[in-house]
């Protein structure tokens, strides 16, 4: 492999796109009906949206996350269509959009023949190339809008069943306005060899984005899904409220990897939840690097005996950023187990919060959970908090919890410098070492990309 | 080639506190200088000033390496010139693997690249010599190391980096007798290429090392310089001398 070079501004560019359709700012039932009509959706989906909108209007803003009060929902335009025509091959993708993706490295990913590339540009999926092999095995990988049309039974059966529209204010907002996102179905016993991947990207100021992802792994199926995000910088607040639902049937394994790198004015409020049935195994591997405020607590509901959960999250908070992230493990059957690991880094006044919930109710015998939270702080202006709630009422439960806060002080930097390692390089080694556990979970090219991202961020932060 | 470090009338301050007053000291290749003195007299401060710790402000005087001013250089630049300052209390680097750390350091100071397997070999030999287990390679820098192990790890770096001028700040504190022997052997072996400034409280190290000069520091100044007889005086009467 050649030497990797990257410029810091690679993740910070904006294309001049001619938006074909754009709703005025603000939200009403009419906006939602319009949206559903334009999409040509069946009636049940329109009803689903309207119902969700009512929940949204009724629910107050969550008060337990600091910083949400600065978000003005009336100030956000709710749907933009960058390209009306859906592309099936790379050749058909408009040049301007291609250029953007070039900078993000998507064609390389394609060259390397990863499973299938589905890229989302603003609210519309413009590029969707599912490899023939996937189709042959009965694997469905498409955008969620297409799935509503092409696989109505599957969608109707599972859509909104894991995350109900009434779950929380932002899940309701997403349910009312969702557009794009990925739909994956893996049939019984099929193991998807290569990770499936999608890129998301916001390209317009003031544009809300509400993608909706649904993954169904049938009995004994195995799939890894990767989502990498990056966005341009714009002057006004932007909202990203996604919902991800995973269903892992008996003996299935689903691994969901996210690298989130929204620009620093984005509110990223995501509801991610999985249902794990008998002996199923669900893994959330989640990195939050960008955004102004992130609130994201991937959860796994272990519904049948033998179900397992692995939730690993990394958060990086620089100046004016707050990463409020964590995990939820709900043990609703005997012999279920969960492992939660959280690693966070804050500097220049950034703030990280770990918020976790583990529930082991009486009757979920012989279940176990292990929670580890490590925080790394660079200076006295930054802040980290840990809220590891545990509701354990089953006596046989095996529970362990560890938390640590490490400080990278002047002495650490100086020690490395005294051995000939320049300050920036030293800090990189410390940070990359700290996140190493996460990087190990990534396929190689994502590991490289993630390490680059951290380096760029550290260079910008430390100067 | 002969190398030298010249400290000329160096005064150092931290916050509003004057810690060093007009300290002069000259060390060159082949010499071993011993610096002793009561706790808090400023020995570590001198080491930190040579290292380039920016928390310590040089208010007066010079530090030169081979006649060139060093004071403007960053710590890693000083290290690359061949100056090694060991830490009295080595710090923990959580998440940083020892072998990667040593390799980065080795490559930076020698301006070369080595493969991991080559480097493992080089480290392996030295680990054996010092009496640290091979498993150190899998650990994080100084994490969970005992006091003695930390000092051995400093010694390991001294052996690996082969500096031109080495300032060893109480590297002998906490070392067992065997390691002490390794240390004195290393010093003697490196002497033809290296100049040493050894800060110590302990005359054990002088069993096998012949000092060029012994210096005594008190309240931020070097009050006496002389031969081994100074050590004997201190042995008898403590630091009241001078
Ligand atoms: N960061 C600091 N802030 C204030 N005083 C310091 C600091 N570091 C060292 N000192 C003071 O400087 C004096 C010299 O300390 P030091 O050089 O460590 O002595 P030694 O190594 O000889 O024991 C001591 O009085 C110590 O308390
Ligand atoms: Mg000292």
Description of the molecule:
- The complex is a heterodimer of chains A (463) and B (242).
- By secondary structure, chain A is α/β, with parallel strands linked by helices.
- Chain A folds into 2 domains: 5-296, no CATH class; 411-463, no CATH class.
- Chain A is 25% helix and 34% strand.
- Chain A is built from 12 helices and 23 strands.
- Chain A has helices at residues 29-39, 43-58, 95-104, 106-111, 132-136, 144-150, 152-158, 169-177, 410-418, 423-434, 436-439, 444-462; strands at residues 21-22, 80-81, 117-121, 124-129, 140-143, 182-186, 196-200, 212-217, 222-229, 238-240, 243-248, 253-260, 266-276, 281-288, 293-296, 299-302, 308-317, 322-331, 337-346, 351-360, 368-377, 383-392, 398-407.
- In chain A, strands 5, 6, 8, 10, 11, 13, 15, 16, 18, 20 and 22 form an 11-stranded mixed β-sheet that branches. A 10-stranded mixed β-sheet of chain A has the order 4-3-7-9-12-14-17-19-21-23.
- In chain A, α2 (43-58) runs antiparallel to α8 and α6 (144-150) crosses α7 (152-158).
- The two termini of chain A are 28 Å apart.
- By secondary structure, chain B is α/β, with parallel strands linked by helices.
- Chain B has a single domain, classed as P-loop containing nucleotide triphosphate hydrolases (Rossmann fold), CATH 3.40.50.300.
- Chain B has helices spanning 43-51, 75-81, 98-110, 116-130, 147-161, 177-190, 228-237; strands at 4-14, 17-28, 32-36, 57-65, 68-69, 83-85, 93-97, 140-141, 165-169, 195-199, 213-218, 221-226.
- Chain B has a 6-stranded mixed β-sheet with strand order 6-9-10-3-11-12. A 4-stranded antiparallel β-sheet of chain B has the order 2-1-4-5, covered by helices on one side.
- In chain B, α4 (116-130) crosses α5.
- Chain B is globular, with a radius of gyration of 18 Å.
- The model of chain B has no long low-confidence stretch (mean pLDDT 93).
- The interface between A and B is medium-sized, with 25 and 29 residues.
